[in-house]
Specification:
The complex is a heterodimer of chains A (312) and B (446). With 312 residues, chain A is an all-alpha fold. Chain A has helices at 2-28, 30-59, 73-79, 82-115, 118-133, 136-146, 153-159, 172-200, 204-212, 217-245, 249-254, 266-276, 280-288, 290-311. Chain B is an alpha/beta fold and 446 residues long. Classes of the chains: A mainly alpha (312), B alpha/beta (446). Chain A binds chain B through residues 63-65, 67, 77, 80-83, 149-151, 165, 167-171, 175, 255-261, 272, 274-280, 282, and chain B through 78, 81-82, 85, 89, 102-103, 106-107, 109, 210-212, 259-266, 269, 272-273, 276, 278, 405, 408-409, 412-414, 418, 421-422, 438-439, 442, 445-446.
Chain lengths: 312, 446
């Protein structure tokens, strides 16, 4: 009897000891510590990223006055609008061409900088990063003045060579060119610095071996440099594609989507529809349309990276 | 140790005193006895203009014992629109907000009706113009009090010398300071001839065809002068009408006399055009002239603000009012209404108009002949006809009389200027009309 009466107390005590030691063990585990340390960031992401994302999903399912649930009604409406498909087309042209040129220029410039002697390299790196470190809203204002319809500094310079005036922001083709140019100018340094880091990690022995095999510079790039940089190229391309698709400031400041909507991209058109047109649910639907496009791109690029990782 | 005894009389007296104090305490007016009130006012671009409204608010707050907080929110970068959207979503924020043009209607479900104060204000200041009624009323109920701060007419601002020299038009004679206009001949035919003459002389009119407000406002007034509406007041599509065709034909002719880059113009472009001395006329409130007064006085001395030309259906001028509206989530609605009454007193309005250098326009009938417009210069009287003192124009906003929620879409998607550009760039008239009709159908979604 006595034993029986004493046993539950013993169990409770053992459980408490186990609990304490369990907590101690959990805290000792690296993953738990990592989780606790990352918790502030996780909370921040939950509040500033996850909640707004879910809220915009909720908004996209409401009608214009936000009083009625309409499911996919807003998307159905958008699919019937010509302007929406124009925006989809332009967003793709804008993002893909800008990323290609950024990657190309970044790759070429990274090679130049890589070949500059180490002492001078820091200065070049610093100078070439300037476009990337200036807030784009500010630098785009300077570009706006350079492209100004009536007082363009570019047109003034070109006039000495008997060229122009070019309607930088007044003609659909030139306006598209201008917004892409500014985006490339702003984003190329990011590619440059990433590629430069990748170039520095390519073992010198590989180039030496290629040289012994008689490879010319093109073959060295094609068979040594590019395969060694493939992962970093894929990651930077994906990252830049996401950022460029979601661009707002450059287009908004330079052309505000004009002329005749020919430079609108998802974010600028979402702002026009949602904030200026007071149709917040439709604006949310426009901006959410980026998600499936970027998700498909991300799946392809990341799958390629993990495949190569497994092969390695 | 002595112990004082409390007598029955003393006990009764003390109880009576404390009860009286407790009962009367809420009625004793302390520094902020009437609570708090916060305002989101439009941040005026004229230096010192905010000070006038701030002084008026403080004056009222001291008298009424209300703790006030004013935030001046700029319209640059649409910061005010973003704040309105955020406050509407959060159902929290300022008590009073300065709503531009369409925002009373787009937030109508969340705004306090102010008919009780609008009655006495109108009785004192005179009737409110038609555009302020169209934008500020829903089913006959006021959604806000028309604010003079930020409200403006975007009429022609002409160069006296260039118009006289190249178009043979004396704008000062046509719109003399201090007396009624002699503008019977100031029609769109005369306007077009003047545009052609000034273009030939190398000083084209600076009228933009971009997608921002100034461009759309001018197009709106011209369309209305031809009786052209894309959507009528009942919400019917009226794109494919002769009036719209006439307006487009007129614009096609006009665009050929404008600077070649007008498709890319924003709200700053016309100001720069005037200040640089390159153009003979722009359509703008006196802000461009005020900048010229500072940066190019020789240009400012030659500027004259006057009325719009008349079209077949009348003389229309773009008018963009602001409203002071009270959110229905405000916790001090009575104090907010009291403040708006104070800000709408004739003396308060005059103080704010003077501080803005005559830029701000009251929406009330009796307040279009203030001294400031007579006196501003150089040249003296340049702003006399800015507020349309003789009521010869119909003040309007682009895309009206369509139901405001539809008109807002037409306005911000710049459907009118896009139509003009498409047609001018060689698109067939019927194709342009079909495109516009498709757009307007989309704007009708509820």
């Amino acid at each position: 009897m006595v034993d029986v009466t004493l046993q539950p107390n013993r169990v409770t005590a053992t459980q408490a000891v186990r609990k304490r030691s369990g907590l101690r063990n959990a805290l000792r585990r690296k993953s738990t510590v990592a989780f606790v340390m990352a918790l502030p960031l996780i909370l921040l992401i939950l509040i500033l990223v996850v909640y707004p994302a879910l809220y915009s999903l909720h908004l996209a399912t409401l009608n214009k006055s936000m009083a009625k649930f309409v499911g996919f009604g807003n998307f159905e409406f958008l699919f019937k609008r010509d302007t929406f498909w124009l925006v989809v087309k332009q967003s793709c042209i804008f993002a893909i061409s800008a990323v290609i040129f950024k990657a190309l220029i970044g790759f070429i410039v990274a090679h130049f900088v890589h070949n500059v002697p180490a002492k001078k390299q820091r200065k070049w790196r610093g100078m070439l990063l300037v476009p990337w470190v200036i807030p784009p809203a500010m630098s785009t204002l300077a570009w706006l003045w350079l492209f100004d319809p009536s007082y363009s500094a570019f047109n003034y310079t070109l006039s000495f060579f008997g060229i122009g005036p070019i309607p930088w922001t007044g003609d659909a083709m030139w306006a598209r060119f201008s917004v892409i140019l500014v985006n490339v100018w702003y984003g190329a340094p990011f590619f440059m610095i990433m590629y430069l880091a990748a170039l520095k990690s390519v073992p010198e022995q590989l180039y030496e071996a290629a040289a012994i095999d008689g490879a010319n510079w093109w073959q060295r790039i094609w068979y040594v440099t590019l395969p060694m940089m493939r992962n970093i190229i894929a990651i930077t391309t994906l990252f830049s594609l996401i950022v460029t698709f979601a661009n707002f400031d450059i287009v908004r400041i330079l052309t505000a989507g004009g002329p005749l909507d020919h430079t609108h991209i998802f974010a600028t058109w979402a702002f026009r529809v949602g904030i200026e047109g007071s149709d917040v649910p439709l604006g949310a639907s426009v901006s959410l349309f980026m998600v499936p496009i970027l998700a498909v791109a991300a799946v392809f690029i990341l799958r390629d990276i993990s495949k190569r990782g497994n092969e390695a | 140790m002595s112990r004082k005894k409390l007598s029955r009389r003393q006990f009764v007296a003390a109880t009576a005193l404390s009860s009286a104090a407790l009962i009367t305490a809420p009625y004793v007016r302390g520094a902020y006895a009437a609570g708090k009130l916060s305002m989101g006012f439009w941040d005026h671009w004229v230096p010192g203009s905010n000070k006038a409204s701030e002084e008026l608010v403080k004056q009222w707050a001291e008298k009424e014992k209300v703790e006030v907080q004013i935030d001046y929110i700029p319209s640059q970068g649409n910061k005010n629109l973003l704040t309105i959207a955020a406050e509407a979503q959060a159902k929290s924020g300022h008590d009073i907000f300065a709503m531009p043009t369409w925002w009373c209607h787009s937030n109508s479900e969340q705004l306090e009706r102010v008919d009780d104060i609008m009655g006495p204000i109108i009785a004192e200041n005179g009737a409110v113009n038609g555009t302020a009624q169209y934008l500020g009323q829903l089913d006959g109920k006021w959604l806000g009090v028309p604010a003079c701060v930020g409200s403006q007419i975007k009429g022609p601002c002409s160069r006296i010398d260039l118009m006289k020299k190249h178009a043979n038009i004396d704008v000062q004679e046509m719109y003399p300071a201090g007396s009624p206009p002699k503008a019977d001949n100031w029609t769109f035919d005369t306007f077009l001839k003047a545009a052609e003459a000034c273009h030939k002389a190398g000083f084209p009119f600076g009228i933009g065809l971009g997608e921002t407000s100034d461009n759309v406002d001018t197009a709106g007034a011209i369309f209305q002068s031809f009786g052209a509406q894309l959507v009528d007041a009942k919400g019917n599509l009226t794109v494919k009408t002769d009036a719209v065709r006439q307006a487009l034909e007129f614009y096609k002719k006009l665009i050929s006399f404008l600077p070649p880059d007008v498709a890319a113009w924003d709200d700053a472009s016309n100001n720069k055009w005037l200040v640089s001395g390159k153009g003979a006329m722009i359509m703008n409130p006196p802000s461009a002239w005020a900048v010229a007064k500072r940066d190019a006085p020789q240009v400012a001395e030659q500027c004259w603000t006057h009325g719009f030309p008349a079209g077949p259906k009348g003389r229309f001028a773009p008018y963009l009012p602001y409203f002071w509206s009270i959110w229905n989530f405000s916790k001090n609605k009575e104090a907010a209404k009291s403040l708006l009454v104070h800000l709408s007193k004739p003396a308060s309005i005059e103080k704010m108009v003077v501080a803005s250098g005559g830029y701000d326009l009251p929406a009330y009938e009796k307040l279009t002949k203030l001294k400031v417009w007579e006196e501003e210069g150089p040249p003296k009287g340049t702003l006399f006809h800015y507020p349309d003192p003789y009521k010869l124009q119909t003040l309007s906003i682009a895309a009206s009389p369509a139901p405001p929620k539809v008109a807002q879409q037409i306005y911000f998607q710049a459907t009118l200027t896009k139509m003009c550009l498409r047609y001018h760039q060689g698109e067939a008239m019927e194709k342009t009309l079909a495109w516009a009709e498709g757009e307007c159908e989309g704007f009708m979604r509820s």
